[in-house]
Every structure is written in structure tokens, then in C-alpha cells.
Design goal:
The complex is a heterodimer of chains A (111) and B (111).
Chain A (H helix, E strand, L loop, with lengths): L3 E4 L2 E5 L4 E7 L6 E6 L5 E7 L5 E4 L2 E5 L5 E6 L8 E8 L6 E3 L3 E6 L1
Parallel strand pairs in A: 2-11
Antiparallel strand pairs in A: 1-3, 3-8, 4-5, 4-9, 6-7, 7-8, 9-10, 9-11
Chain B lengths: L3 E4 L2 E4 L5 E7 L5 E7 L5 E8 L2 E5 L6 E7 L2 E6 L8 E8 L6 E2 L3 E5 L1
Parallel strand pairs in B: 2-11
Antiparallel strand pairs in B: 1-3, 3-8, 4-5, 4-9, 5-6, 7-8, 9-10, 9-11
The chains are: A mainly beta (111), B mainly beta (111).
Amino acid sequence: SQELEQSPQSLIVQEGKNLTINCTSSKTLYGLYWYKQKYGEGLIFLMMLQKGGEEKSHEKITAKLDEKKQQSSLHITASQPSHAGIYLCGADGGSGYALNFGKGTSLLVTP
Amino acid sequence: DTAVSQTPKYLVTQMGNDKSIKCEQNLGHDTMYWYKQDSKKFLKIMFSYNNKELIINETVPNRFSPKSPDKAHLNLHINSLELGDSAVYFCASSQPNSPLHFGNGTRLTVT
């Protein structure tokens, strides 16, 4: 089965600083999904990456998938308190019918 | 215009009881899921249904029984609740190779 490892587990950054979260897969990624979960709420879809070398951006968040399709990174520029939450990467485990998720990265942005 | 809605939001019950969580999606998706998120925020797939047919049934105790009366509904019934069942349960839906849309979760507390 596919395992996704996220790092770091938790992150505390000062407002305005940049940060990066990594997601490494034990197998080739055929679809990598980034989600954000605010504390006590559901998961919000951020971005989906499928092609090696692909990069997508939305507002101040950029996600990349490496050429070998085994690692993805999520980069936040000039972080704000609204970016706080848990970031999870998910990938198709091969069944085509469900995503396996990493254990999440908890982000806190301090004023 | 809730896309994936699940009820109840909170469920507090005693050990040994039987309870159900309901989920409905109005996105016209073919596939629906149940995920369990434990206290460490790890999100794990439990079941996946495609057009009312069970596709994925992970290692889940037989006390958990999903039921899909139609494509838009996937309910989760739990018999003989145990302390270890306490968690947040998320319903989700999707189309093939597309992001999952999650409900806001049901926080189950077994006392």
C-alpha cells in the first residue's frame, strides 16, 4: 500500500514569513492532492497535481510535484494568521477509488 | 448550498449503544466514502462506494456497516460502540481522478 510521509509534523511561524511543507510517497504518485483543515472543521481542497514537474499556485500558496512524481511540496509566501490549520496531502493508493493521506502538518502563524 | 452534508455534527453516547451517521451529497458524484480521523488527526479510509456498490472495505470491525440506499446517500451504522470508536468521522464524495469533497465531520464521543 502507498504511504505518505509529511514533514514537518508541526510548524510555528511568524506572520509574514515563508514556509514549506513536504509530502513524500513510498510509491509513484498518480495524483497528489493538498487539503487544508481548519481546527474542528472539514477538509478544504487546495490543489491537485498529476504531472511530473507540475506547479500550481493559488493566491499565496504554491504546490509542486517533482519530476519523479514521488514528492510534493507546498509553499506559503508571506504567511498570515488565516493560513493556520492542518495541511494534508492525499494520493490515490492505486485503487482509483480513495485517497490515502499523510498524517498532516499543523501550522500556527503568530502575529 | 451544502455539497456534502452529514448529520449529526456531534454524537455523544455510551458504550454498547448502536448509532448511525447520515451523509448526503448533491454534487451528482458516483463515489462516496467514509473516513475516520483519530485524535492525532490521522485520516484513514474506511469504506468507499461507487454507484451504491461497495468498492473498498478496509480493515474495519464488523460492527461498522455502511449502507447506500442510492447514489447520493451513504450512511454509517455502528453497533456495540466502544471507547476506541471515539473519533471524527468524515463523509466525502468524488468523481474519478478528481478531488474528494468532504462533509464537515461528525465528532463521536463514546463514554
